[in-house]
Amino acid sequence: MYRVKEAFYTLQGEGAQAGRAAVFCRFSKCNLWTGREKDRATAVCDFCDTDFLGTDGQNGGAFETAEALSAHIRRLWPDAPGAPYVVCTGGEPLLQLDEKLIDAFHQQGFEVGVETNGTLPAPAGIDWLCVSPKANAPVVIEACDELKLVYPQPKAMPERFTHINARHFFLSPMASPSAPDNDTDPVKQSNTRKATDYCLAHPRWRLTLQMHKIIGID
Ligand SMILES: C[S@@+](CC[C@H](N)C(=O)[O-])C[C@H]1O[C@@H](n2cnc3c(N)ncnc32)[C@H](O)[C@@H]1O
Ligand SMILES: Nc1nc2[nH]cc(C(=O)O)c2c(=O)[nH]1
Ligand code: SF4
Ligand SMILES: [Mg+2]
User: For ligand 2, is residue 14 a contact (CB within 6 Å)?
Assistant: First the structure.
């Protein structure tokens, strides 16, 4: 059984695939926060900008089989040329994503991207793996396509992750959890300046912005 909070067609807003059309499959649950506001202050990850509780979002639900979920996601891809792309996110997708589901997405013609906090092993077959470490949570994934670190995190500064075998190293300025866009988020504006300064001083790192919050889409 796979539990999905929501699924929607949009542009990937972050990282090296930013601007690419994708179906986002947002899995329910996370291992670093319950998703309840009352628990945020004591959570390992306390800045999450996402509601991943339950299965009640748009196109959400509980799916008995990998075939059922992959067919559901396929229906959200347009009938037009261009390589179909699904981004598995959450919550923490690696609590649920298994090889069976990756195979089923491939059967439907999708390339499979994953956004993970890196604390759980990744199944084989992922086409694009993005690891985004959180506070002092141990990262067990040692190779990925992109390392996308939310900045600044006092317990997860960039130097801790440069040993990871990644094609790209990104800093993503930390947004206020509930701000709908950048214009109404002075904390994010200040964090963007800090991330910019870090990248200028450490050119291995590149700046990435949450493009969807700039252009006002999901
Ligand atoms: C909601 S998480 C879900 C996937 C996975 N649990 C993870 O943390 O990578 C999706 C992406 O949003 C980023 N994110 C979450 N809260 C954020 C915030 N307040 N500001 C900037 N990025 C944030 C995460 O770091 C991650 O790259
Ligand atoms: N457009 C858009 N791009 C994204 N990239 C990563 C996201 C996520 O929440 O995993 C995300 C998201 O929520 N929306
Ligand atoms: S950002 Fe990722 S790791 Fe942190 S609480 Fe949200 S879903 Fe979990
Ligand atoms: Mg998001």
Answer: yes
Q: How far apart are CA 172 and CA 210, in angstroms?
A: 7
Q: Tell me, in angstroms, the distance from the centre of ligand 3 to residue 79's CA.
A: 32
Band of pLDDT at residue 93, cut at 50, 70 and 90: very high
Whose CA is closest to 134, among 121, 117, 158?
A: 117
Round to whole Å and give the CA distance between 189 and 1: 40
Both tokens of 130, joined, read: 């993005």
Average confidence (pLDDT) over 78-94: 98
Residue 191: count of CB within 10 angstroms of its CB: 20
Type of residue found at 32:
L
Question: Can you give the length of the chain in residues?
Answer: 218
Q: Using CA atoms in the order 99, 100, 101, 106, what is the torsion angle rounded to 10 degrees?
A: 80
50 among annotated binding-site residues: yes
Token output for 154? 């006092």
Instruction: Write down the ipTM of this complex.
Output: 0.99
Q: Say what the pLDDT of residue 181 is.
A: 81
Whether 183 has a pLDDT exceeding 90, the answer reads no
Taken in order of first residue, the domains within the chain and their CATH numbers are 2-215 (3.20.20.70)
Q: How many helices (H) and strands (E) does the chain have?
A: 4, 9
